[in-house]
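Data availability (excerpt). The following record was deposited with the supplementary files.
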Amino acid sequence: MPNLINKILIENIYTNIVKTSRNKNFFLAFKVDDTVEGRFDIIILHSFIVFQFFLYIGQKKSDLSQMLFDHMFADFDNNLREMGFGDIAVNKRMKQFIKAFYGRISNYSKSQIQFEKMNDDTMLKNTILRNIYKDKDPGNESINFWKNYIVDNIKYINDNTLDKNIINLFSFKSIEK
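Predicted structure:
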């Protein structure tokens, strides 16, 4: 029974990540491209924030974080198939998604560490520009929004206990625009 409970919990956490990632202000006010890649990048960013919590509490390899990862990539696979991709194309795209995921998570992590230890946001801003905007300059307001959004949400989620985050489905702070 605990596996069924965890499966439902992970589905709900992931649904919250996706719902939050679809906030129209990300695409309209903060100029993220409303494309498959743009939506993928925002989902990965929100997932990074949740995964950071598991690192923060010392559960790098927790069952919940692994289940979230597995569920997220199963959803990506299902979405590709719904878009009409065949097995070979899905496998190729999934390899690209996994590589992109690990690259982005690594870049966000390094950037976050530099920001926390040195109070230097240069790397974080460059990571945002490269990952979310594909090196197209959306302007300082958008870059600063994402920097503050990441930092504020990591703090917001890390300030909660695991139980509280689970009850809240790892909810994110609402955005102002």
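Summary of structural features: The radius of gyration is 16 Å.
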